[in-house]
Amino acid sequence: MAATRISHLDDTFYKKADAFFTANSKVGLTYDDITLATLYSEILPRNTQLDTTLADGLQLNIPAISSDMDTVTESRMAIAMALNGGLGLIHYNMPEREQLSQVSRVKYHVQGLIQDPIKISPDQFIGDVLKLIEEKKFGFSTFPVVDEKGKLLGLLSGHVVKPRYATKKVIDALTPRKAVHTITKKELGKDPIARADKFFTEHIGIHKLLVVDDDDQMLGLITMSDVERITLERKAQFKPARDAQFRLICGAAVSATRNAFGGLDEKRILEHVSALVERGVDVVAVSTAHGHSKGVGDTVKVLRDAFPKLPIIAGNVTSAAGVEYLADCGANAIKVGQGPGSICTTRIVAGVGIPQMTALYVCSRAAAKKRVSILADGGITKSGDIVKALTLSSAVICGGIFAGCTEAPGEAVEISGKMYKHYRGMGSLAAMKSGSAARYGHEKADTTRKVAAEGIEALKEVSGSVDRVLAQLIGGIQSGMGYLGAKDLEQLRSKARYIRVSPAGQREAAPHDVVELKTGN
Ligand code: IMP
Hints:
The strands form six sheets. The protein has an eight-stranded parallel β-barrel with strand order 5-6-14-15-16-17-18-19, surrounded by seven helices. A four-stranded mixed beta sheet has the order 7-13-12-11. It has a three-stranded antiparallel beta sheet with strand order 1-23-2. The chain has 20 helices and 23 strands. Helix 3 runs parallel beside helix 4 (96-107), helix 10 crosses helix 11 (294-306) and helix 12 packs across helix 14 (356-370). By secondary structure, the protein is α/β, with parallel strands linked by helices.
């Protein structure tokens, strides 16, 4: 019992959120300005639960969202996020119809199905195929063979893709259609991996299953090694985030689009969101730099009236009044963050914004009254920041942390022997030229006056797959929860106690007075 009794001395130094932030109301605090006090714990990190509800009908299995930025979230990132239990918000710096097909790609993603496998045509030579493998550095040598209309003709097996057959034509070497194992997408059913797993067990020695439609058009390919990897992953603690029909969840950002007369283009916004809903989008995010504004409020109201059940994220704000306004307009989850982003210059350019922990505290209290959730958007650089953010919010939105991942849009570039990916603010001049100007209250075609960029273009070191990055972050969140004796995120929010950190304390918090060795990577 003694272990759980809170000593008065602790209470004097380590304060609960209301007491702490009120006592520090004269200063804006961010992640590194504070630290969390440990508490008696019976909770092992690995037993902590990370599921979070952002709105009725929108539940994540981990509290992480990838930013709606054009160098962060397109379909590949959204698929990876949802497979890990989180959510990706597809950005809007692309034609509307392209955003629709990006959402479709996520919603119709069949895990383990290679949707666009490399195909070979029947009149190629085996030598051409060998050259292709060499050029593209493929680690496989079996290919479906299709005619010019995409109809399946057979399978070119790796056994015949050998230099000795280089002058033979593919048509003479392929395993013919009738001898190739196929399955239709319908037959794969709700759990394609379980179905494919059963197939591979029943067909000894067969390692590839081709997926076709009723007209024998090639739709994709499932390999036994992928099925085995995924079956192993299924034992993982955090399940993919899926909708009621077992599809991966996906979000899309929309802007408060204006018409030629400067008014809100309600018709266009409604048409686009209707099309997104038809494709199965799970949440839309009305994303702007200044969410406590008429344009954003009106957009949210229009959407709420038209789609009473659709979860709506809106932002960004940093004030209680901003949260109340967006909640009253109909938003379910509100993005908090003005100026914390790693590529953001809003505070420098506009002199505006609030350090993130203070902003989260103020907004969280308004959100609790309005029964909406808040999302901590921007400024997260390490898992410890996420733990601190989650003491006041329902999830975090990250850009920079995911921008170096393989699944982020764009190719990696090599600079002085290191690999980097481009990462840019949606308020950078380059991104605004590609369409995001409205987010920062500017016109895309505004050439008559200088437009002040509120973001920079940058590089992020390549960081591997989303799986790997999230595994690190989740490990950190779970450790933090273990230290606080919190078995779930609700307990983390109610138990957290804070203290400010001095500049010397900040230095003490990172490795110091040593030369770091990296042998375990
Ligand atoms: P990060 O995770 O610290 O890199 O911050 C990402 C967040 O910064 C996004 O989710 C946006 O809220 C915000 N953001 C994106 N582009 C800009 C910009 O150009 N200026 C200011 N903030 C931005």
